[in-house]
Amino acid sequence: MPARMTSExxxxxxxxxxxxxxxxxxxxxxxxxxxxxxxxxxxx
Amino acid sequence: xxxSHTHAAAQDDHDHxxxxxxRWVYATNHKDIGTMYLIFxxxxxxxxxxxxxxxxxxxxxxxxxxxxxxxxNSMTTMHxxxxxxxxxxxxxxxxxNWMIPMQTGAPDMALPRLxxxxxxxLPFAFTLLLSSLFVPGGAPAGGWTMYPPLVLQNGAxxxxxxxxxxLMGASSILGAINVVVTIMNxxxxxxxxxxxxxxxxTWLITAYLLIAVMPVLAxxxxxxxxxxxxxxxxxxxxxxxxxxxxxxxxxxxGHPEVxxxxxxAFGIVSEVIPxxxxxxxxxxxxxxxxxxxxxxxSFIVWAHHMFTVGMPLAAQLFFMLSTMLIAVPTGVKVFNWxxxxxRGSLSFEPPMLFALAFLxxxxxxxxxxxxxxxxxxxxxxxxxxxxxxxxxxxxVPGSIFGMMAGVYYWLPxxxxxxxxxxxxxxxxxxxxxxxxxxxxxxxxxxxxxxxxRIPDYAxxxxxxxxxxxxxxxxxxxxxFLFPYIIWKCVRxxxxxxxxxxxxxxxxxxxxPSPPPYHSWTTPPSDAVIARGAAH
Lengths: 44, 535
Description:
The structure holds 2 protein chains of 2 kinds. Chain A has one helix at about 1-44. Chain A is rod-shaped and about 55 Å long. By secondary structure, chain A is an all-alpha fold. Chain B has helices at about 1-15, 20-25, 30-60, 70-105, 110-130, 155-185, 200-230, 245-275, 285-295, 315-325, 325-340, 350-375, 375-380, 385-415, 420-445, 460-480, 480-490, 525-530, and strands spanning about 415-420, 495. Chains A and B meet through helix 1 of A and helix 6, helix 7 and helix 8 of B.
Protein backbone atom coordinates (compact mmCIF):
# COMPACT_ATOMS: atom_id res chain seq x y z
CA MET A 1 0.00 0.00 0.00
CA PRO A 2 2.68 2.59 0.91
CA ALA A 3 4.57 1.70 -2.27
CA ARG A 4 1.40 2.31 -4.35
CA MET A 5 0.85 5.64 -2.61
CA THR A 6 4.41 6.66 -3.37
CA SER A 7 4.08 5.80 -7.03
CA GLU A 8 0.75 7.70 -7.17
CA UNK A 9 2.36 10.68 -5.50
CA UNK A 10 5.37 10.65 -7.81
CA UNK A 11 3.10 10.25 -10.84
CA UNK A 12 1.14 13.28 -9.67
CA UNK A 13 4.37 15.18 -9.14
CA UNK A 14 5.41 14.37 -12.71
CA UNK A 15 2.01 15.47 -14.02
CA UNK A 16 2.23 18.74 -12.08
CA UNK A 17 5.74 19.44 -13.39
CA UNK A 18 4.80 18.56 -16.98
CA UNK A 19 1.69 20.69 -17.02
CA UNK A 20 3.45 23.65 -15.35
CA UNK A 21 6.16 23.50 -18.04
CA UNK A 22 3.53 23.24 -20.77
CA UNK A 23 1.71 26.36 -19.53
CA UNK A 24 5.00 28.22 -19.22
CA UNK A 25 5.78 27.34 -22.82
CA UNK A 26 2.35 28.55 -23.90
CA UNK A 27 2.88 31.84 -22.05
CA UNK A 28 6.31 32.23 -23.66
CA UNK A 29 4.69 31.45 -27.02
CA UNK A 30 2.24 34.34 -26.60
CA UNK A 31 5.10 36.66 -25.55
CA UNK A 32 7.40 35.90 -28.45
CA UNK A 33 4.51 35.25 -30.86
CA UNK A 34 3.20 38.79 -30.59
CA UNK A 35 6.66 40.28 -30.99
CA UNK A 36 7.24 38.14 -34.10
CA UNK A 37 3.80 39.15 -35.38
CA UNK A 38 4.78 42.81 -35.04
CA UNK A 39 8.07 42.15 -36.84
CA UNK A 40 6.37 40.30 -39.69
CA UNK A 41 3.84 43.09 -40.08
CA UNK A 42 6.61 45.69 -40.11
CA UNK A 43 8.49 43.75 -42.80
CA UNK A 44 5.50 43.85 -45.20
CA UNK B 1 -5.12 4.75 23.55
CA UNK B 2 -1.65 4.46 22.11
CA UNK B 3 -3.25 4.91 18.70
CA SER B 4 -5.03 8.06 19.75
CA HIS B 5 -1.79 9.43 21.21
CA THR B 6 0.04 8.70 17.98
CA HIS B 7 -2.79 10.30 15.97
CA ALA B 8 -2.78 13.39 18.19
CA ALA B 9 0.99 13.66 17.87
CA ALA B 10 0.66 13.36 14.08
CA GLN B 11 -1.98 16.10 14.08
CA ASP B 12 0.28 18.32 16.19
CA ASP B 13 3.01 17.70 13.70
CA HIS B 14 0.62 18.63 10.87
CA ASP B 15 -0.11 21.90 12.57
CA HIS B 16 3.55 22.71 13.13
CA UNK B 17 4.34 26.01 11.50
CA UNK B 18 7.50 28.09 11.36
CA UNK B 19 7.62 31.17 13.53
CA UNK B 20 8.92 34.70 13.12
CA UNK B 21 9.96 36.26 9.85
CA UNK B 22 10.90 32.89 8.33
CA ARG B 23 7.23 31.88 8.30
CA TRP B 24 6.50 34.71 5.87
CA VAL B 25 9.68 35.09 3.84
CA TYR B 26 10.04 31.36 3.21
CA ALA B 27 6.28 30.74 3.18
CA THR B 28 5.05 27.80 1.13
CA ASN B 29 1.74 27.29 2.90
CA HIS B 30 -1.19 28.41 0.77
CA LYS B 31 -2.92 30.10 3.69
CA ASP B 32 0.15 32.13 4.66
CA ILE B 33 0.77 33.16 1.06
CA GLY B 34 -2.92 33.98 0.65
CA THR B 35 -2.77 36.17 3.75
CA MET B 36 0.30 37.99 2.43
CA TYR B 37 -1.41 38.61 -0.92
CA LEU B 38 -4.49 39.99 0.83
CA ILE B 39 -2.47 42.30 3.11
CA PHE B 40 -0.49 43.49 0.09
CA UNK B 41 -3.68 44.11 -1.90
CA UNK B 42 -5.25 46.02 0.99
CA UNK B 43 -2.15 48.21 1.34
CA UNK B 44 -2.17 48.96 -2.38
CA UNK B 45 -5.92 49.67 -2.22
CA UNK B 46 -5.22 52.46 0.26
CA UNK B 47 -2.20 53.80 -1.66
CA UNK B 48 -4.22 53.81 -4.91
CA UNK B 49 -7.13 55.30 -2.98
CA UNK B 50 -4.95 58.14 -1.68
CA UNK B 51 -4.05 58.93 -5.31
CA UNK B 52 -7.77 58.98 -6.16
CA UNK B 53 -8.30 61.45 -3.31
CA UNK B 54 -5.66 63.76 -4.84
CA UNK B 55 -7.52 63.55 -8.16
CA UNK B 56 -10.90 64.31 -6.57
CA UNK B 57 -9.41 67.12 -4.47
CA UNK B 58 -8.00 68.81 -7.55
CA UNK B 59 -11.31 68.38 -9.39
CA UNK B 60 -13.41 69.71 -6.54
CA UNK B 61 -13.39 73.16 -8.15
CA UNK B 62 -12.45 74.42 -11.64
CA UNK B 63 -9.00 75.92 -11.97
CA UNK B 64 -5.71 74.55 -10.74
CA UNK B 65 -5.91 74.28 -6.95
CA UNK B 66 -3.41 71.95 -5.35
CA UNK B 67 -1.20 70.08 -7.84
CA UNK B 68 0.41 70.89 -11.16
CA UNK B 69 -0.99 69.21 -14.29
CA UNK B 70 2.01 66.89 -14.71
CA UNK B 71 1.57 65.53 -11.19
CA UNK B 72 -2.19 65.22 -11.75
CA ASN B 73 -1.51 63.10 -14.83
CA SER B 74 0.90 60.99 -12.80
CA MET B 75 -1.84 60.45 -10.25
CA THR B 76 -4.37 59.23 -12.82
CA THR B 77 -1.76 56.90 -14.35
CA MET B 78 -0.43 55.54 -11.06
CA HIS B 79 -3.91 55.22 -9.50
CA UNK B 80 -4.93 52.91 -12.33
CA UNK B 81 -1.73 50.85 -12.30
CA UNK B 82 -1.75 50.47 -8.52
CA UNK B 83 -5.43 49.58 -8.31
CA UNK B 84 -5.44 47.11 -11.22
CA UNK B 85 -2.10 45.36 -10.75
CA UNK B 86 -1.55 46.04 -7.05
CA UNK B 87 -4.96 45.85 -5.42
CA UNK B 88 -7.48 43.87 -7.46
CA UNK B 89 -5.29 41.21 -9.10
CA UNK B 90 -3.27 40.32 -5.97
CA UNK B 91 -6.51 40.45 -3.96
CA UNK B 92 -8.02 37.76 -6.18
CA UNK B 93 -4.82 35.73 -6.05
CA UNK B 94 -4.92 35.94 -2.27
CA UNK B 95 -8.46 34.61 -2.19
CA UNK B 96 -7.51 31.91 -4.70
CA ASN B 97 -4.62 30.82 -2.51
CA TRP B 98 -6.78 30.61 0.56
CA MET B 99 -9.82 29.01 -0.97
CA ILE B 100 -8.94 26.85 -3.99
CA PRO B 101 -7.13 24.10 -2.01
CA MET B 102 -9.77 24.18 0.73
CA GLN B 103 -12.65 24.07 -1.77
CA THR B 104 -11.22 21.31 -3.93
CA GLY B 105 -9.93 19.04 -1.16
CA ALA B 106 -6.28 19.65 -2.08
CA PRO B 107 -3.60 19.76 0.64
CA ASP B 108 -1.97 22.88 -0.81
CA MET B 109 -1.23 24.60 -4.11
CA ALA B 110 0.58 22.34 -6.57
CA LEU B 111 3.76 24.45 -6.70
CA PRO B 112 4.28 25.99 -3.25
CA ARG B 113 7.74 27.43 -3.84
CA LEU B 114 6.67 28.99 -7.12
CA UNK B 115 3.76 30.41 -5.14
CA UNK B 116 6.18 32.06 -2.72
CA UNK B 117 8.18 33.46 -5.65
CA UNK B 118 5.02 34.82 -7.36
CA UNK B 119 4.13 36.73 -4.24
CA UNK B 120 7.55 38.11 -3.35
CA UNK B 121 8.02 39.56 -6.85
CA LEU B 122 5.20 41.98 -6.14
CA PRO B 123 6.68 44.13 -3.34
CA PHE B 124 9.76 44.70 -5.51
CA ALA B 125 7.61 45.56 -8.55
CA PHE B 126 5.56 48.10 -6.66
CA THR B 127 8.50 49.60 -4.78
CA LEU B 128 10.04 50.20 -8.20
CA LEU B 129 6.84 51.65 -9.63
CA LEU B 130 6.07 53.88 -6.65
CA SER B 131 9.65 55.09 -6.31
CA SER B 132 9.28 56.55 -9.82
CA LEU B 133 7.32 59.32 -8.06
CA PHE B 134 10.66 60.59 -6.74
CA VAL B 135 12.80 60.53 -9.89
CA PRO B 136 13.48 63.61 -12.08
CA GLY B 137 10.51 64.21 -14.36
CA GLY B 138 8.14 62.47 -11.99
CA ALA B 139 6.16 59.26 -12.24
CA PRO B 140 4.68 57.96 -15.51
CA ALA B 141 1.96 60.36 -16.62
CA GLY B 142 0.86 59.11 -20.03
CA GLY B 143 -2.06 57.00 -18.77
CA TRP B 144 -2.05 53.36 -17.67
CA THR B 145 -2.55 52.39 -21.32
CA MET B 146 1.02 53.56 -22.06
CA TYR B 147 0.19 54.68 -25.60
CA PRO B 148 3.15 55.68 -27.73
CA PRO B 149 4.40 58.19 -28.65
CA LEU B 150 3.32 59.90 -25.39
CA VAL B 151 4.75 57.22 -23.11
CA LEU B 152 8.12 57.42 -24.87
CA GLN B 153 8.40 61.03 -23.72
CA ASN B 154 8.53 59.97 -20.05
CA GLY B 155 11.84 60.69 -18.38
CA ALA B 156 13.68 58.44 -15.97
CA UNK B 157 10.44 56.80 -14.89
CA UNK B 158 9.94 55.06 -18.25
CA UNK B 159 12.33 52.10 -17.76
CA UNK B 160 11.08 51.78 -14.18
CA UNK B 161 7.51 51.52 -15.45
CA UNK B 162 8.44 48.93 -18.07
CA UNK B 163 10.44 46.80 -15.64
CA UNK B 164 7.68 47.01 -13.02
CA UNK B 165 5.10 45.89 -15.60
CA UNK B 166 7.30 42.94 -16.56
CA LEU B 167 7.62 41.93 -12.90
CA MET B 168 3.87 42.21 -12.27
CA GLY B 169 3.22 40.21 -15.41
CA ALA B 170 5.65 37.48 -14.37
CA SER B 171 4.01 37.30 -10.95
CA SER B 172 0.53 37.02 -12.46
CA ILE B 173 1.54 34.39 -15.01
CA LEU B 174 3.27 32.21 -12.41
CA GLY B 175 0.30 32.59 -10.06
CA ALA B 176 -2.09 31.63 -12.86
CA ILE B 177 -0.04 28.57 -13.82
CA ASN B 178 -0.14 27.48 -10.19
CA VAL B 179 -3.92 27.84 -10.12
CA VAL B 180 -4.45 25.85 -13.33
CA VAL B 181 -2.05 23.10 -12.31
CA THR B 182 -3.57 22.88 -8.83
CA ILE B 183 -7.14 22.65 -10.09
CA MET B 184 -6.30 20.15 -12.83
CA ASN B 185 -4.05 17.88 -10.75
CA UNK B 186 -4.68 18.31 -7.04
CA UNK B 187 -8.45 17.95 -6.63
CA UNK B 188 -9.61 15.29 -4.23
CA UNK B 189 -10.78 12.05 -5.91
CA UNK B 190 -14.48 12.50 -6.56
CA UNK B 191 -14.25 16.27 -6.97
CA UNK B 192 -15.21 16.24 -10.64
CA UNK B 193 -15.08 19.42 -12.69
CA UNK B 194 -18.84 19.87 -12.54
CA UNK B 195 -18.82 19.46 -8.75
CA UNK B 196 -16.38 22.33 -8.28
CA UNK B 197 -17.65 25.48 -6.61
CA UNK B 198 -18.22 28.43 -8.93
CA UNK B 199 -15.37 30.38 -7.33
CA UNK B 200 -12.95 27.64 -8.42
CA UNK B 201 -14.47 27.55 -11.89
CA THR B 202 -14.27 31.30 -12.38
CA TRP B 203 -10.66 31.28 -11.16
CA LEU B 204 -9.74 28.44 -13.51
CA ILE B 205 -11.07 30.43 -16.47
CA THR B 206 -9.43 33.62 -15.16
CA ALA B 207 -6.11 31.77 -14.96
CA TYR B 208 -6.41 30.68 -18.61
CA LEU B 209 -7.07 34.32 -19.55
CA LEU B 210 -4.04 35.45 -17.55
CA ILE B 211 -1.73 32.92 -19.21
CA ALA B 212 -2.94 34.03 -22.64
CA VAL B 213 -2.86 37.80 -22.25
CA MET B 214 -0.27 38.84 -19.67
CA PRO B 215 2.56 37.74 -22.00
CA VAL B 216 0.97 39.89 -24.72
CA LEU B 217 1.22 42.95 -22.47
CA ALA B 218 4.79 41.99 -21.64
CA UNK B 219 5.55 41.68 -25.37
CA UNK B 220 4.02 45.10 -26.06
CA UNK B 221 6.02 46.86 -23.33
CA UNK B 222 9.21 45.05 -24.40
CA UNK B 223 8.71 46.55 -27.85
CA UNK B 224 8.18 49.98 -26.24
CA UNK B 225 11.44 49.47 -24.38
CA UNK B 226 13.38 48.59 -27.55
CA UNK B 227 11.78 51.56 -29.35
CA UNK B 228 12.99 53.85 -26.57
CA UNK B 229 16.49 52.49 -26.00
CA UNK B 230 17.57 50.34 -28.93
CA UNK B 231 16.41 52.29 -31.95
CA UNK B 232 13.66 49.97 -33.13
CA UNK B 233 10.54 51.55 -34.58
CA UNK B 234 7.72 49.13 -33.79
CA UNK B 235 5.44 51.99 -32.80
CA UNK B 236 7.34 55.05 -34.05
CA UNK B 237 5.76 56.52 -37.16
CA UNK B 238 8.97 58.34 -38.13
CA UNK B 239 10.72 55.03 -38.63
CA UNK B 240 7.83 53.33 -40.42
CA UNK B 241 6.24 51.96 -37.26
CA UNK B 242 2.60 52.17 -36.31
CA UNK B 243 1.46 53.67 -32.99
CA UNK B 244 -2.05 52.33 -33.57
CA UNK B 245 -0.67 48.80 -33.63
CA UNK B 246 0.34 49.29 -29.99
CA UNK B 247 -3.28 50.10 -29.19
CA UNK B 248 -4.44 46.90 -30.90
CA UNK B 249 -1.90 44.79 -28.99
CA UNK B 250 -2.56 46.59 -25.71
CA UNK B 251 -6.31 46.09 -25.91
CA UNK B 252 -5.93 42.47 -26.96
CA UNK B 253 -4.55 42.21 -23.43
CA GLY B 254 -6.70 44.97 -21.96
CA HIS B 255 -10.15 43.63 -22.62
CA PRO B 256 -9.61 40.11 -21.26
CA GLU B 257 -7.94 41.92 -18.34
CA VAL B 258 -11.32 43.46 -17.52
CA UNK B 259 -12.70 39.93 -17.16
CA UNK B 260 -9.65 38.85 -15.18
CA UNK B 261 -10.69 41.56 -12.73
CA UNK B 262 -14.36 40.63 -12.63
CA UNK B 263 -14.76 36.85 -13.16
CA UNK B 264 -13.64 35.83 -9.64
CA ALA B 265 -16.27 38.28 -8.31
CA PHE B 266 -18.87 36.35 -10.34
CA GLY B 267 -17.66 33.23 -8.56
CA ILE B 268 -17.98 34.76 -5.11
CA VAL B 269 -21.44 36.16 -5.80
CA SER B 270 -22.42 32.67 -7.01
CA GLU B 271 -21.36 31.30 -3.61
CA VAL B 272 -22.84 34.04 -1.44
CA ILE B 273 -26.30 34.40 -2.99
CA PRO B 274 -27.25 30.69 -2.61
CA UNK B 275 -25.96 30.67 1.00
CA UNK B 276 -28.07 33.62 2.11
CA UNK B 277 -31.06 32.55 -0.01
CA UNK B 278 -30.86 29.04 1.48
CA UNK B 279 -31.34 27.60 -2.00
CA UNK B 280 -29.04 25.88 -4.47
CA UNK B 281 -27.62 28.08 -7.22
CA UNK B 282 -30.08 28.27 -10.11
CA UNK B 283 -28.55 26.82 -13.29
CA UNK B 284 -25.08 25.80 -12.09
CA UNK B 285 -23.99 24.40 -15.45
CA UNK B 286 -25.39 27.37 -17.35
CA UNK B 287 -23.31 29.60 -15.06
CA UNK B 288 -20.14 27.66 -15.90
CA UNK B 289 -20.85 27.85 -19.64
CA UNK B 290 -21.72 31.54 -19.35
CA UNK B 291 -18.37 32.31 -17.71
CA UNK B 292 -16.54 30.30 -20.37
CA UNK B 293 -18.47 32.13 -23.13
CA UNK B 294 -17.67 35.53 -21.61
CA UNK B 295 -13.99 34.57 -21.46
CA UNK B 296 -14.00 33.43 -25.09
CA UNK B 297 -15.81 36.55 -26.29
CA SER B 298 -13.39 38.77 -24.37
CA PHE B 299 -10.73 37.89 -26.97
CA ILE B 300 -12.68 39.21 -29.94
CA VAL B 301 -13.93 42.59 -28.75
CA TRP B 302 -10.74 44.56 -28.08
CA ALA B 303 -11.14 47.23 -30.74
CA HIS B 304 -14.25 48.66 -29.08
CA HIS B 305 -11.76 50.57 -26.90
CA MET B 306 -10.42 52.38 -29.94
CA PHE B 307 -13.28 52.95 -32.38
CA THR B 308 -12.19 56.56 -32.89
CA VAL B 309 -8.72 55.71 -34.27
CA GLY B 310 -10.47 54.91 -37.53
CA MET B 311 -11.08 51.43 -38.87
CA PRO B 312 -13.05 49.88 -41.72
CA LEU B 313 -16.83 49.80 -41.36
CA ALA B 314 -16.82 45.98 -41.33
CA ALA B 315 -14.39 45.99 -38.40
CA GLN B 316 -16.50 48.52 -36.53
CA LEU B 317 -19.61 46.40 -37.07
CA PHE B 318 -17.82 43.22 -36.03
CA PHE B 319 -16.45 44.69 -32.80
CA MET B 320 -19.74 46.42 -31.99
CA LEU B 321 -21.80 43.25 -32.44
CA SER B 322 -19.33 40.93 -30.70
CA THR B 323 -19.27 43.34 -27.75
CA MET B 324 -23.06 43.35 -27.57
CA LEU B 325 -23.01 39.57 -27.68
CA ILE B 326 -21.32 39.53 -24.25
CA ALA B 327 -24.59 40.83 -22.83
CA VAL B 328 -26.13 37.39 -23.51
CA PRO B 329 -24.04 35.22 -21.14
CA THR B 330 -23.87 38.13 -18.68
CA GLY B 331 -27.66 38.31 -18.80
CA VAL B 332 -27.80 34.57 -18.10
CA LYS B 333 -25.74 35.14 -14.98
CA VAL B 334 -27.79 38.08 -13.71
CA PHE B 335 -30.98 36.11 -14.38
CA ASN B 336 -29.67 33.04 -12.55
CA TRP B 337 -28.55 35.01 -9.50
CA UNK B 338 -31.98 36.64 -9.37
CA UNK B 339 -33.71 33.28 -9.88
CA UNK B 340 -31.63 31.82 -7.04
CA UNK B 341 -33.13 34.41 -4.70
CA UNK B 342 -36.65 33.85 -6.00
CA ARG B 343 -38.74 32.41 -3.16
CA GLY B 344 -35.59 31.86 -1.15
CA SER B 345 -35.38 32.39 2.57
CA LEU B 346 -33.30 35.53 2.33
CA SER B 347 -31.25 37.14 5.06
CA PHE B 348 -29.04 40.17 4.72
CA GLU B 349 -25.71 39.62 6.40
CA PRO B 350 -22.77 41.73 5.12
CA PRO B 351 -21.61 39.29 2.38
CA MET B 352 -25.15 39.17 0.97
CA LEU B 353 -25.48 42.95 1.11
CA PHE B 354 -22.27 43.37 -0.86
CA ALA B 355 -23.38 40.65 -3.32
CA LEU B 356 -26.72 42.38 -3.86
CA ALA B 357 -25.07 45.75 -4.36
CA PHE B 358 -22.77 44.01 -6.83
CA LEU B 359 -25.77 42.63 -8.71
CA UNK B 360 -27.48 46.02 -9.10
CA UNK B 361 -24.48 48.25 -9.59
CA UNK B 362 -22.41 45.96 -11.80
CA UNK B 363 -25.47 45.70 -14.03
CA UNK B 364 -25.53 49.50 -14.31
CA UNK B 365 -21.87 49.31 -15.40
CA UNK B 366 -22.84 46.62 -17.90
CA UNK B 367 -25.60 48.76 -19.38
CA UNK B 368 -23.34 51.79 -19.81
CA UNK B 369 -20.91 49.36 -21.47
CA UNK B 370 -23.60 48.49 -23.99
CA UNK B 371 -24.07 52.19 -24.70
CA UNK B 372 -20.33 52.51 -25.30
CA UNK B 373 -20.39 49.52 -27.66
CA UNK B 374 -22.57 51.41 -30.14
CA UNK B 375 -20.08 52.91 -32.60
CA UNK B 376 -21.76 56.24 -33.41
CA UNK B 377 -22.58 56.82 -29.73
CA UNK B 378 -19.05 55.88 -28.74
CA UNK B 379 -17.73 58.64 -31.02
CA UNK B 380 -19.45 61.05 -28.63
CA UNK B 381 -18.56 59.30 -25.38
CA UNK B 382 -14.91 58.50 -26.21
CA UNK B 383 -12.48 59.97 -23.66
CA UNK B 384 -15.24 61.60 -21.60
CA UNK B 385 -16.15 61.09 -17.95
CA UNK B 386 -18.92 58.74 -19.14
CA UNK B 387 -16.22 56.15 -19.78
CA UNK B 388 -14.72 56.82 -16.33
CA UNK B 389 -18.15 56.32 -14.73
CA UNK B 390 -18.69 53.12 -16.73
CA UNK B 391 -15.51 51.31 -15.81
CA UNK B 392 -15.61 52.46 -12.21
CA UNK B 393 -19.10 50.97 -11.88
CA UNK B 394 -17.66 47.71 -13.20
CA UNK B 395 -14.56 47.77 -11.03
CA VAL B 396 -15.61 49.31 -7.71
CA PRO B 397 -19.11 47.97 -6.96
CA GLY B 398 -18.16 45.10 -9.27
CA SER B 399 -14.69 43.76 -8.47
CA ILE B 400 -14.08 45.52 -5.14
CA PHE B 401 -17.56 44.83 -3.70
CA GLY B 402 -17.24 41.22 -4.92
CA MET B 403 -13.93 40.92 -3.10
CA MET B 404 -15.40 42.46 0.04
CA ALA B 405 -18.32 40.03 -0.15
CA GLY B 406 -15.76 37.21 -0.33
CA VAL B 407 -13.72 38.47 2.61
CA TYR B 408 -16.83 38.97 4.77
CA TYR B 409 -18.06 35.51 3.72
CA TRP B 410 -14.88 33.58 4.53
CA LEU B 411 -13.36 35.73 7.30
CA PRO B 412 -15.11 33.74 10.09
CA UNK B 413 -13.72 30.54 8.52
CA UNK B 414 -10.18 31.95 8.37
CA UNK B 415 -10.13 33.32 11.91
CA UNK B 416 -12.61 31.12 13.78
CA UNK B 417 -14.36 34.29 14.99
CA UNK B 418 -17.45 36.13 13.84
CA UNK B 419 -16.66 39.74 13.01
CA UNK B 420 -18.58 42.79 14.18
CA UNK B 421 -21.67 42.42 11.98
CA UNK B 422 -23.05 45.82 12.92
CA UNK B 423 -19.86 47.60 11.93
CA UNK B 424 -19.64 45.57 8.71
CA UNK B 425 -23.19 46.68 7.84
CA UNK B 426 -22.14 50.28 8.48
CA UNK B 427 -19.21 49.68 6.14
CA UNK B 428 -21.59 48.33 3.52
CA UNK B 429 -24.15 51.12 3.71
CA UNK B 430 -21.56 53.90 3.68
CA UNK B 431 -19.77 52.24 0.74
CA UNK B 432 -22.96 51.56 -1.22
CA UNK B 433 -24.33 55.09 -0.78
CA UNK B 434 -21.12 56.98 -1.42
CA UNK B 435 -19.93 54.87 -4.33
CA UNK B 436 -23.03 56.12 -6.14
CA UNK B 437 -22.52 59.71 -5.01
CA UNK B 438 -18.97 59.39 -6.31
CA UNK B 439 -19.51 57.77 -9.68
CA UNK B 440 -23.11 58.36 -10.81
CA UNK B 441 -22.63 62.11 -11.44
CA UNK B 442 -19.68 61.26 -13.67
CA UNK B 443 -22.20 59.88 -16.20
CA UNK B 444 -23.81 63.34 -16.38
CA UNK B 445 -20.42 65.03 -16.67
CA UNK B 446 -19.41 62.73 -19.50
CA UNK B 447 -22.68 63.13 -21.37
CA UNK B 448 -22.28 66.91 -21.03
CA UNK B 449 -18.85 66.61 -22.65
CA UNK B 450 -16.30 66.77 -19.82
CA UNK B 451 -13.08 65.08 -21.01
CA UNK B 452 -11.25 62.60 -18.79
CA ARG B 453 -7.63 62.96 -17.56
CA ILE B 454 -7.73 66.76 -17.13
CA PRO B 455 -6.88 68.70 -13.96
CA ASP B 456 -9.08 71.68 -14.87
CA TYR B 457 -12.48 72.03 -16.53
CA ALA B 458 -15.08 74.47 -17.76
CA UNK B 459 -17.23 76.04 -15.03
CA UNK B 460 -20.47 74.38 -16.15
CA UNK B 461 -19.12 71.08 -14.82
CA UNK B 462 -18.51 72.43 -11.30
CA UNK B 463 -21.59 71.20 -9.42
CA UNK B 464 -21.42 67.54 -10.34
CA UNK B 465 -17.67 67.52 -9.80
CA UNK B 466 -18.20 68.83 -6.28
CA UNK B 467 -20.82 66.15 -5.61
CA UNK B 468 -18.51 63.48 -7.02
CA UNK B 469 -15.57 64.67 -4.89
CA UNK B 470 -17.69 64.72 -1.71
CA UNK B 471 -18.77 61.16 -2.54
CA UNK B 472 -15.12 60.25 -3.12
CA UNK B 473 -13.92 61.59 0.22
CA UNK B 474 -16.76 59.89 2.10
CA UNK B 475 -16.24 56.60 0.25
CA UNK B 476 -12.50 56.78 0.92
CA UNK B 477 -12.93 57.48 4.62
CA UNK B 478 -15.52 54.71 5.06
CA UNK B 479 -13.02 52.16 3.72
CA PHE B 480 -10.94 52.48 6.88
CA LEU B 481 -13.68 50.48 8.58
CA PHE B 482 -12.71 47.45 6.49
CA PRO B 483 -9.18 46.77 7.86
CA TYR B 484 -10.41 47.73 11.34
CA ILE B 485 -13.19 45.11 11.21
CA ILE B 486 -10.73 42.48 9.96
CA TRP B 487 -8.12 43.36 12.59
CA LYS B 488 -10.75 43.21 15.34
CA CYS B 489 -11.97 39.83 14.07
CA VAL B 490 -8.45 38.38 13.90
CA ARG B 491 -7.85 39.43 17.52
CA UNK B 492 -11.01 37.82 18.86
CA UNK B 493 -14.77 37.65 18.78
CA UNK B 494 -17.60 35.19 19.11
CA UNK B 495 -16.34 31.67 18.36
CA UNK B 496 -18.02 29.99 15.41
CA UNK B 497 -18.32 26.35 14.35
CA UNK B 498 -17.27 24.72 11.11
CA UNK B 499 -20.20 26.21 9.21
CA UNK B 500 -20.20 29.94 9.89
CA UNK B 501 -23.36 30.49 7.83
CA UNK B 502 -26.19 27.99 8.16
CA UNK B 503 -26.92 27.92 4.42
CA UNK B 504 -23.28 27.49 3.35
CA UNK B 505 -22.24 24.46 1.28
CA UNK B 506 -18.79 23.46 0.12
CA UNK B 507 -15.74 21.60 1.34
CA UNK B 508 -14.29 24.61 3.17
CA UNK B 509 -17.21 24.47 5.60
CA UNK B 510 -16.39 20.85 6.49
CA UNK B 511 -13.06 21.99 7.97
CA PRO B 512 -12.74 23.40 11.49
CA SER B 513 -12.74 27.18 11.93
CA PRO B 514 -9.99 28.28 11.76
CA PRO B 515 -8.78 25.48 9.50
CA PRO B 516 -5.61 23.61 10.50
CA TYR B 517 -2.35 24.92 9.09
CA HIS B 518 -2.27 21.91 6.75
CA SER B 519 -5.80 21.05 5.67
CA TRP B 520 -7.05 18.06 3.65
CA THR B 521 -3.85 16.09 4.29
CA THR B 522 -6.27 13.18 3.90
CA PRO B 523 -8.60 13.80 0.96
CA PRO B 524 -12.28 14.20 1.86
CA SER B 525 -14.54 11.22 1.27
CA ASP B 526 -16.96 11.10 -1.64
CA ALA B 527 -19.90 11.57 0.76
CA VAL B 528 -18.35 14.76 2.14
CA ILE B 529 -17.70 16.02 -1.39
CA ALA B 530 -21.25 15.22 -2.46
CA ARG B 531 -22.64 17.06 0.60
CA GLY B 532 -20.48 20.09 -0.23
CA ALA B 533 -21.40 20.07 -3.90
CA ALA B 534 -25.12 20.63 -3.27
CA HIS B 535 -25.29 23.31 -5.98
